[in-house]
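Whiteboard transcription, Tuesday session. T.W. wrote the structure tokens on the left side:
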């Protein structure tokens, strides 16, 4: 195959370029722009709306399924869970139904063509695609020629693909970039618990043995996490609840049964679910400590308003000055991430190390402001 076309100039809108650069940094992707674009081509071309014919086929299948589901629900009203749908559904649609569906699909294709044909022209960037990504593009040539806005210009399709990627939510984009890890881990979590293998997960310089339980998103739908019972690799410590942000996992190794079992016992499952309810998926890693926080009246109002990332108190006491003292059993990181935004309306009473950490961070902020304004007032 002629690979001279691997080097191409891709035009990207300012929005897309900003999102791509931000994601490469946030996801810790250490590769060139061409490498990142290649990754998106390999992971997203199959499901992107920019692949207009494939998107149209998915839409057609959805419409057909909707018609079949409606028919089935009328014919078998008691099967509310659609348990026998695949067996008993009417597979043949009438010519009139098919005509309507094709009309809707045609309109959908026109809508997508207009959408990707009207994207703002931005900045042209040189990108060298990986062999696998370029070969995939070449295999789509016949499909792309049928779309007026692409024609024989593969770079036009790559632009549309990257614009579609950049229009998605952070969670969706993370799911695209790390689709290989997510699909592997989900398949392991869906394996019968008795046969589930142990996985070794590497994050930075740390390595853990993990009994996988589920892949889930945090409450703000920002990131994917692997949740399970884990411990440091090659040690005999007890397994404890752990979570790992998928975008921070460097490597995953599925262990053989002879190494260790990935089965989660009934007691471990109870501990894991309790930890999830109490601490949230983002804060399973780290030792729990007892933290005491004093909230002013305004601080209490803020605490009752900001729910994202909020730790749940185990005790609540009102003092004689109208303040509220809350006690938490959670990680120091969760307390720090949540209460730093409160300023003087939240005072860490204990542990002392955490209180000193807050003092140091606030002092750094004061020093930064003082330094900046002294130069301005200069």
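and on the right, the sequence the group agreed on:
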């Amino acid at each position: 195959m002629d690979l001279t076309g691997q080097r191409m100039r891709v035009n990207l809108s300012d929005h897309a370029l900003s999102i791509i650069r931000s994601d490469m940094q946030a996801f810790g992707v250490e590769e060139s722009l061409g490498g990142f674009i290649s990754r998106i081509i390999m992971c997203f071309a199959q499901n992107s709306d920019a692949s207009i014919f494939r998107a149209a086929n998915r839409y057609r299948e959805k419409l057909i399924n909707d018609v079949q589901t409606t028919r089935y629900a009328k014919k078998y009203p008691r099967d509310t869970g659609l348990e026998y749908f695949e067996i008993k559904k009417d597979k043949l649609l009438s010519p009139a139904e098919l005509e309507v569906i094709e009309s809707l699909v045609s309109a959908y294709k026109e809508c997508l063509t207009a959408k990707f044909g009207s994207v703002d022209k931005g900045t042209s960037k040189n990108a060298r695609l990986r062999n696998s990504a370029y070969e995939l593009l070449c295999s789509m040539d016949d499909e792309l020629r049928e779309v007026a806005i692409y024609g024989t210009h593969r770079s036009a399709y790559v632009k549309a693909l990257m614009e579609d990627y950049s229009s998605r939510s952070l969670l969706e984009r993370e799911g695209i970039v790390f689709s290989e890890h997510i699909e592997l881990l989900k398949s392991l979590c869906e394996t019968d618990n008795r046969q589930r293998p142990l996985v070794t997960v590497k994050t930075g310089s740390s390595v853990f043995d993990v009994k996988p339980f589920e892949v889930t998103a945090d409450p703000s739908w920002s990131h994917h996490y692997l949740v399970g019972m884990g411990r440091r690799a090659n040690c005999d410590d007890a397994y404890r609840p752990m979570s790992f942000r998928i975008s921070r996992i460097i490597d995953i190794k599925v262990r053989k049964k002879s190494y260790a079992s990935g089965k989660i016992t009934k007691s471990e499952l109870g501990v894991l679910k309790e930890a999830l309810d109490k601490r949230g998926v983002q804060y399973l890693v780290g030792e729990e400590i007892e933290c005491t926080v004093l909230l002013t009246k305004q601080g209490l109002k803020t605490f009752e308003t900001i729910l994202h990332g909020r730790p749940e108190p185990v005790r609540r006491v009102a003092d004689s000055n109208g303040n509220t003292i809350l006690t938490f059993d959670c990680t120091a990181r969760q307390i720090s991430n949540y209460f730093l935004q409160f300023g003087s309306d939240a005072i860490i009473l204990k542990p002392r190390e955490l209180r000193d950490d807050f003092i140091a961070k606030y002092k750094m902020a004061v020093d930064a402001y003082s330094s900046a304004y002294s130069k301005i007032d200069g």
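Someone added at the bottom: The first strand starts at residue 7 and ends at 12.
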